[in-house]
Amino acid sequence: MRINKISELSGGSFELFLLIKDIQSKTARNGSSFLTFSFTDGTDTLSANMWDMQIDSLEVSAREVAFVSLEGKPYNGKMSYTVERIRPSYPSEGVSVSDFVPTSQIPPETLYDFCISRIAKMENKELSALVGRIYSDNREKLLHHSAARSVHHNKIGELLWHIARMLKLASYVADTYSFLDRDMLASGVLLHDIGKLDELSTDEMGITEYTSDGCLFGHALLGIEKVRKYAKELGTSDETVRCLTHIIAAHHGTRDFGAIAAPATAEAYAVHCIDLIDARMYIFEENLSKIDEASFSDPIYALEGTRIYKPKKN
Length: 314
Ligand SMILES: [Fe+2]
Ligand SMILES: [Fe+2]
Fold this sequence. Notes:
The chain has helices at about 110-120, 125-135, 140-145, 160-175, 180-190, 195-200, 210-235, 240-250, 265-290, and strands at about 10-25, 35-40, 45-50, 65-75, 80-90, 200, 210, 295, 310. It is α+β, with helices and mostly antiparallel strands.
């Protein structure tokens, strides 16, 4: 059957265009060679094996759009897919790589402008100068970056999507807890993951990989270094830099989750909680869109193995 999207797959034979993200060459226990493909349709991803096949015999390679014939069969209570045939797409078929690149729900330019408008509203001119300069100097990277390799916010522009939704939450939090420093809280949100621009690289196909610096230092330290560099150039006061970089150092909450320090200011604690809410809500939203009402998801690793439930609407 000819289909358009990975979400339409079930048991049986299907054909569709998919972007090949990656191909891994493997050897089965019986010594035969097989390939594991990672595909995307721009919304979902799919992993499928092609048995008794070597990479040299393929007509296709990673990072191109292919026409794929898949066979779906239940295995261990889940559907498992095998690649039966695969060939490159032809120019006459009118498909291009850009149709398959996962991108944020809202255009990254709109999200960037939303962040800039929040920076413009800051009463603390030291913070608005510092955050504004970091944003304008890194505009292209911010527009393009995803926030993660997997788990949450892993599409092009989704680092900004994550930040924009956190900014909205931060505004409600600052309205409720009026003792908080509103501009410090917003600046912390805007910069808490800025080190991801150096920790991860997202290519034009939306494929994200860790950089060497990312593997060795993580985005909290890389973010602190970036902010300190700009603050030195702009002559930002020591206390402002201290409080802002502490938010970055502490935004993962505990050392077990990669924090350099535990949150010691109210703004740092608030950013940590807001970050966690947005990351978790993203995981709920993505998984709820894939399951039917009155049913459970598969166990979700990022939610401690919880199978989430989609309530039935009356
Ligand atoms: Fe982070
Ligand atoms: Fe974050």
